Amino acid sequence: xxxxxxxxxELMCSGHVACQGCGGALAMRHALxxxxxKTMVVIPACCWxxxxxxxxxxxxxxxxxxxxxxxxGATAAGLRASLDMRGRxxxxxxxxxxxxxxxxxxxxxxxxxxxxxxxxxxxxYDNEAYMNTGVQRSSATPLxxxxxxxxxxxxxxxxxxxxxxxMAAHKIPYAATASVGFLDDLRAKFEKAGKIKGSKLIHxxxxxPPGWKHSSDLTARLARLAVHCKAFPVYEVFDGEKHVINIExxxxxxxxxxxxxxxxxxxxxxxxxxxxxRVDHDWEQLRQKTVRSA
Length: 294
Prior knowledge:
Rossmann fold, globular
């Protein structure tokens, strides 16, 4: 990573109120460096409603529009229309939402916006639960995970929703995954999205120390390990069809990833083996769709 360039493009100030080791804070910093200063950010209810600071203060050097949990897609579409009417097509509109505002409560608004191919980039920093309100299960929570609403005796019984494939089914120009464990790749994808006209979705894995029950110094390591054990593939989808894998996993066992998180400490060896089988199956399905690796 070019640290000199990173400092020159810094659009996020110090002083945020995120938890120590927050993957979502790291993701925002590098996403804005990829997008550049001509950006307006729409944030629905999520951790980032708090992280940025209470009005009138903000740690972001870009304009920020806070909106309702369910309405980020509609709000961003209106903002995009108003900018275009003023001839400001050079300004990027970025929706920055958690998994609740993307996978669940915000899905109808997101789907409506991308079906119209609104010229907006939708970024989901995915910490795999409703962390801002106390670690409740979302449809992004992985199979077998502990949350406050899926306690150890009754962990989540359903697999994680595949939001990238849902967006790809809308035939949008660009959908991709990224991980805070691979920041060069993350920044490059935002740079790419800023040059593509139409709807873009970037799904970012952003570990959460309190919710995942891991030490704050393990955030980047876990984000890398998720990719290398194939639990979170890093890839792109162009026009809903062309799949490109960006980072080849090195084949680490999923047990290594799960064992570093307290939210999976209740799992039996058989349950871990079942998760490994599912991870391998999903990876092979993705591989079959892939035209090449990059």
